[in-house]
């Protein structure tokens, strides 16, 4: 379990994450983003309690990015020295006409490759360009190497949802316990 709080002039966030499952309660003020974070937790098998209050008079940017920062820090805290986990995960998820792919290495070294072009600029109150910003904040603060790709799709909702669910399944596999209890690294340690 990990709990992280972040308070700035732009956002006020309280988040608790359980890697081994639990309740999922998400409230960010951005309906579609709530839907995506709920999908990430449910499909990843994680417990997640999240309350974000953001500066909505501006737009959704700070709410989405700062939530990614806090979720990343929670993953980093919950994973500790990362010994005893599978480390790698990948998944391909179809969502109607769209296909999302994610590969992750929870090595402690952040890097994001994001390859998706969305045909619509918004899904509800969520600016589609914020999907990449969320995953960058998550990757940078958790220490994940994340490769996300949506090679085709016509509906931005389906495309983004496929990416979030693919990330969830990849993280579920990567954070699962390995059979040795040791760090999966020739160096003997991760990060």
From TrEMBL:
Keywords, sorted A to Z: Amino-acid biosynthesis, Cytoplasm, Histidine biosynthesis, Lyase
Coarse class of the protein's main subcellular location: cytoplasm
Record flagged with keyword Signal: no
Localisation per UniProt entry: Cytoplasm
Gene3D superfamilies per the UniProt record, alphabetical: Imidazole glycerol phosphate dehydratase, domain 1
EC number: 4.2.1.19
InterPro entries: IGPD_sf (IPR038494), ImidazoleglycerolP_deHydtase (IPR000807), ImidazoleglycerP_deHydtase_CS (IPR020565), Ribosomal_Su5_D2-typ_SF (IPR020568)
Reactions the enzyme catalyzes: D-erythro-1-(imidazol-4-yl)glycerol 3-phosphate = 3-(imidazol-4-yl)-2-oxopropyl phosphate + H2O
Pathway: Amino-acid biosynthesis; L-histidine biosynthesis; L-histidine from 5-phospho-alpha-D-ribose 1-diphosphate: step 6/9
Family per record: Belongs to the imidazoleglycerol-phosphate dehydratase family.
Name of this chain's protein: Imidazoleglycerol-phosphate dehydratase
Originating organism: Anaeromassilibacillus senegalensis
Gene assigned in the entry: hisB
């Amino acid at each position: 379990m990990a709990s992280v709080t972040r308070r700035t002039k732009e956002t006020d966030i309280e988040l608790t994450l359980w890697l081994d499952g639990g309740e999922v309660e998400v409230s960010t003020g951005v309906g579609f983003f709530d839907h995506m974070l709920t999908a990430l937790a449910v499909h990843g098998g994680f417990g997640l309690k999240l309350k974000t209050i953001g500066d909505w008079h501006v737009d959704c940017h700070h709410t989405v990015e700062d939530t990614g920062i806090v979720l990343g820090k929670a993953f980093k805290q919950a994973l500790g020295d990362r010994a005893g986990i599978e480390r790698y995960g990948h998944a391909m998820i179809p969502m109607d006409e769209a296909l999302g792919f994610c590969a992750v290495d929870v090595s402690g070294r952040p890097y994001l490759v994001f390859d998706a072009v969305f045909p619509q600029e918004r899904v509800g109150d969520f600016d589609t360009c914020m999907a990449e910003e969320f995953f960058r904040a998550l990757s940078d603060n958790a220490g994940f190497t994340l490769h996300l790709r949506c090679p085709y799709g016509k509906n931005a909702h389906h495309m983004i949802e496929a990416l979030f669910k693919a990330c969830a399944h990849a993280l579920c596999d990567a954070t699962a316990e390995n059979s040795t209890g040791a760090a999966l690294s020739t160096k003997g340690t991760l990060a």
